[in-house]
Amino acid sequence: MASSLLSPSFTSFLRTKRCFKAVPRKIIRCAIAAPQRQPSTTGSVRTAMTMTEKILARASEKAQLTPGDNVWVNVDILMTHDVCGPGSIGIFKREFGEDAKVWDREKLVIIPDHYIFTSDERANRNVDILRDFCHEQNIKYFYDIKDLSNFKVNPDYKGVCHVALAQEGHCRPGEVLLGTDSHTCTAGAFGQFATGIGNTDAGFVLGTGKLLLKVPPTLRFVMDGEMPDYLLSKDLILQIIGEITVAGATYKSMEFVGTTVESLTMEERMTLCNMVVEAGGKNGVVPADSTTFKYLEGKTSLPYEPVYSDDQARFLAEYRFDVSKLEPVVAKPHSPDNRALARECKDVKIDRVYIGSCTGGKTEDFMAAAKVFLASGKQVKVPTFLVPATQKVWMDLYSLPVPGSGGKTCSQIFEEVGCDTPASPSCGACLGGPKDTYARMNEPKVCVSTTNRNFPGRMGHKEGQIYLASPYTAAASALTGYVTDPREFL
Ligand SMILES: CC(C)[C@H](C(=O)O)[C@@H](O)C(=O)O
User: Which residues form the Aconitase/3-isopropylmalate dehydratase large subunit alpha/beta/alpha domain (predicted)?
Assistant: First the structure.
């Protein structure tokens, strides 16, 4: 019985235990879930908590947390990639010893994805370092690539880590997922606490499975109303960032709720959470629901336990949007909060369009672009680069029929309208990469992109200009050669 676990000695053990003592998770869950005594008998009053506070409370084995508390959190998944993995491994070895073993070989997920299809020797070496480490440590989830000449002969290779984590079932409601990448917040779409950490912290997690985290306060974004069929969740998040600025959510949790959010697919929820870091957010969360559970079916065999904000939970601020009234937006150079309506930028001539990345390179992003191309019956006017996030996305482009197309696939539609052939899956030119990276901006071009950042130099050239947009707006712009509101075609 759970109540027998709540003996005074057990609860005091919970309170006083040192961070390195392992307490079986099952027991902790029972203890937290057990009925509370009435305040009249204990003198204590339980304060309502937000989702983020509750996840961190469970992960730190506390009954109650308040924003600002610093707690040792048990990590469910640590993800690293080719850019930060080697540095994190170096710190782990230096601090824990050359022969040290990682805390859990099944909770570390290593995903080469950033600088893959390049002849840059140092970039290639980074992947070799990951491979050696994974062999040495017998890491269960290593999505390796050995033959760079053809990604398809590497069955383990996935591509962009944030999309691969979801597709491979590593994202689970109620858990804590850390990663050495700022867009790790994407996984908050699954109702979990997910955030990016630095190499030093990752080195520590590799050795202990724990991290000291400060509990963030939560901003709540209530998005209600029917989503017009010319909007995607990229428009919603650009709208929000435009409103609160790139510093508006610094070290805060962003919780997304409302009827619109409930209607979004998992991939669209991922887009929403992916860009919380562009507002400075610590993490983003969407409450798990039937859409989440359905997506997870067959992807994970591990039990998970969703949590939800209490009715009386305290939010730092609440923002409300009537989504039915919103219009397609872009973020103009050189900041994700430099918001404008797409139609206000109709005179901006562009040189190229890029569809890809963890933000805008998922199957549904390409489906959305294909829908616009199909509706237009026109050819693209500027080079249009397509970089599927993962190997699975690439396969979807060649196999799934686009609704209303009479059975055509995305790849067929893209070819008919004159796009470049879909490239090998990776982070590609979202963050520039080595000089030989496919679709890198090596000249000062103007690009409409479905990616997440438009800082100077982000896609390669310091004087390049990037307009961040939804896949609808990106496709519409490719068809005209100007920044274009997709309503012109939809
Ligand atoms: C390379 C990595 C550290 C970086 C990040 O953390 O976000 C990259 O993925 C990006 O999008 O800028």
Answer: 54-340, 344-481
The rounded distance, in Å, linking the Cα atoms of 426 and 334 is 23
What's the pLDDT at 43? 56
Q: Which residues line ligand 1 (CB under 6 A)?
A: 83-84, 114, 181-183, 196, 431
Q: Which residues pair with 177 in a beta bridge?
A: 77, 194
CB 286 within 8 A of CB 261: yes
So what's the pLDDT on residue 38? 52
Q: Which of 209, 206, 177, 181 is nearest to 193 (CA)?
A: 177
Give the model's pLDDT for residue 32: 43
Q: How many residues in total does the chain contain?
A: 490
Please tell me the residue having the least CA distance from ligand 1 atom 9: 181
Cα(82) to centroid(ligand 1), Å:
11
Tell me: ipTM over 0.90: yes
Residues 263-277: tens digit of each pLDDT: 999 999 999 999 999
Q: In what order do the strands lie in the sheet with 253-257?
A: 283-285, 253-257, 218-224, 317-322
Domains and CATH numbers, the chain: 77-213 (3.30.499.10), 219-325 (3.40.1060.10), 330-488 (3.30.499.10)
For residue 334, say if its preceding peptide bond is cis, omega within 30 degrees of 0.
yes
If pLDDT is split at 50, 70 and 90, which confidence band does 42 have? low
Pair 361, 389: CB distance under 8 Å: yes
106 contacts 302 by C-beta, under 8 angstroms: no
